[in-house]
Amino acid sequence: MDIEVEGRVEMVTLSLRDGELQCVSSDARNDGPHVHAALQFVAGMETREDSSPPGAVVSTAPQSVEQSAASELADALDDLLTAITRIGVGKAQHAPSVDAALERLIGAAPKPTPSGLGRFIGRLQQAMRSAELRRVVRLLEGASQLADALRAGTPSPQAELRIAEWLGTRPGTRPEVELLYDRTMIEVAREWLPGTERASLERRYLVDAQSGVVYREDRLRNATASLGPCPRQLQVGLAEVEAGPGPRRIRVLQYEVEPHVPAESWDCLRQVASQSFAEVTESYRATLRASPSLAEPFALVAPFRVERNGVFKAFDAEGHQLMLDRSERRGAVLAFYDLLAQGMEPSWLAGRLTDAGTTVCLTPFAIGTFDGKYTRL
Amino acid sequence: MAHNLDTDVDTLELCLREGIAGNEYADPRETLGCAPDTDDAEVARALVRIVAAHDLAQLGMQSVHPEAARHPSVRPPTEVTADPSFLGRLSTTGDEGLSVERIEDVQTLLAVLRAGSRRQRRAALGRLGERLADRRLLHSDDVRKAIQVISRLRDVELGYELAQLRVELPGTPGRAARQEREQWKRLAQRTEVEIRAFWDGQSSVDAIRALPGDQRALLLVRVSELSDLVVHHITAIIEGSDGCVRLESRIGLITSLRYARDPRLVPALVAVLEAERGELVASAARVLGGMDDARAQPALAERFERSFVAEERIALAGALGMHGDLRGLGEVRSSLEEDQPKLLLQALEAMENLGSPESTDLVTKFLDHSDASIAIQAARTCARIGDGRALDELTDGYNATAVPALRAAIEDALSAIAARMELRGEEAATIDWSEVGNKPAPRKGPRDSLPAISLGWRDYFMGRLWLLLGRVTWAIARFESAATRRDDWAVPLIGIGMAFTRREQYALALPAFRRAIEVDRLRIERNPILVRAMAKAFLHRAEQVEREGRDDVARGLVGEVLTLDLRRAPGTVRFELKRKHDVLRRGEQGDVHSAA
User: Fold this and answer.
1) What is the CATH number of the domain that holds A337?
2) How far is A314 from chain B (nearest CA, A)?
3) With a cut of 0.90, is the ipTM above it?
């Protein structure tokens, strides 16, 4: 409930845990004036000034339904940011105020929860669980940018694009899509990702065999997408690519599936893979700047040289190094090391780009070798 | 006031980590240049903006951060270490310390093959294969005995390894194995063509689903040798991205891969663990348990930690046990102690990989369970635990039961325990089979008269002749006549059963086989050709009635044949019968959860 004391409004969460009533206000205090006021109210010692049900402080200015919904969502995003900042990233995972702010955000979002927002919530919960400050901050910065875009009376094209990335295209606006014809694409990896629920989104990574551009095909649980195993080769007759955070989302509309990818196609992939790690790093930084919350860059890289003595190190021709991220997909990393120990010579690697202590790293998803072999990790 | 940006950002990061409310270290308002009474919301936004901007600016600026350079060192244990004996410490890999790869003595390898864990048995078989490849040793007594054991071994769990090794054997077993391999090649080629047609849109039928159960088991026993196309098709079904296969069929396919070890299957199985629930997860966990792959244990452990479905947790615990991770032991023990009927079979199965001699009493109490499949599984679990204290209970169970399959399982268990005791250096238990078990019932009634015998044989041979000429009806009439001339004579009944089985008229073959079993069960059980035909007849008939939607009848048929001693039937048929029995049993309990 929202409690106002001396002109300051705080959200107070009351919960029953292990038979004990726990109270905490959104300023992270459990014995502050707002908590005392809330307890008095619950005990019936204080009456509300009005008879309306407790909830968010409602703006009295007349607004259209759409503006009101957008404003409510922006407020919910701000509340979430404030709740996490007050309690601290280290303690946010178990904070009732953060849980309540997330619930409010989901409540204020359009139904069903748009995949962009859902993925933001999933990533934020994951980052809070591991108390990764940098990731939480980037996610909150993106949320803050969305709140600004939602509040803008007449959103700029950039703000409109940002809203579309998060919430899908709004009624009355035209989706910004690029049409692709007659392309050969190869799916190199796929994974299940958390959204508002665990494993609510399946993501497939498709690489254009001619240009090396990576696309993502997202499929919500129980929804349909293109058919076929991973890996597979798709002869795409027609596809739509949405503008948005990298990798851009693709909708494959007309296609033929080849479940066996020929060795020549793997060779094509090796040729179009990024060979400069400096460029990979720069592209990673640019993608994150453009969309700090939603970008989940994925790269296909062809190392010039690989070192395997104990620790895997990949180098490009200029001597720049690319490390493996060992914090995610531990099994895949271990399997990757096992393959290296067995003498596998990777000619290209596909994986999600992340960073550890400001160093750009790669979480491995797939490996290709010079003899046209592919291994999904 | 000029600020040192790095110091300021460090302060701001500390504020963000610890929280700005009640932070006694620093107030970000001053660092951010805000008024002391600035609203928290405004401070929070400014704080996040500055720290995020600094973070993004720093990206890629340092060469290599030490945190990023660390090697993943936490590798899960792969060997069971709870047992300090020879077998408990026997590693399956590496050429140092106690490793199967270093064992030279064939007798010891044969004992490991009887008593070891699945991994140890696989490794022992591999090592035996190396020894057999040495032509100089072929004529030694030990190697001759090894060849005999390998050609007689009916271990379903080692189906692929046995098939590979038998191909190299001399004589009849080798020829039979090579013939089976050729049969597999033809089947694989045919399946590949059908899969290509499926993805080209020329066929809407999934080739693997359309295969009869024993053919599917035969195809998948050598999954490691299948082409990428077929394996990718299988992974599409496992992940549910083929667009046509139903949930039950997905579960069916995953259970058919129970003993597969192909690493190409691992990502799809891990995806099932991550995204699905219920029986799909349990089936995938059982397959991953047997995989020697670094991805399996972390995925199983992660799923175990967040699963709350008892059926899933038991299967995950068992699978983790195969990787030497005993975190689920307590839960499996509880299921057995509480005697939860729905979980008994799975808990006993999981105990195969988790159990130690401490669990012997807990397991042996199920040897006299009224449900034969539970008693059989208890005997199997005793075999894997290998505690000599179970010998008495097993012998009692053997003498008390009339179920041939249970007696067969107990025989195997006694042999495994004896081998384990031998490997532990204990006095090997010598089992006097003459003192164990039911003696053959004395023949009742008078012997058949000489004319009856000769007329019976005449009718029988006439029946064979009509069969050769293709006159089945006349042949069956002659066989029936032969059977009525003599009491307790199973030969003509077997002839009827075989004739109908060859013509794929399984519904007609069953009554004849049933009568033959009633008259002379041992004749069928001890003859590999007869037991194979009989088991296939039951299996195929069960598949037919299942397709008609009569699951209860199918369950009855599979349950009936599984009470017999099928050790001489082909491993693929036994595997498929057991798999079908498990699936139908779970269907009866309503355990096939929606994978939504």
Assistant:
1) 2.40.50
2) 12
3) no
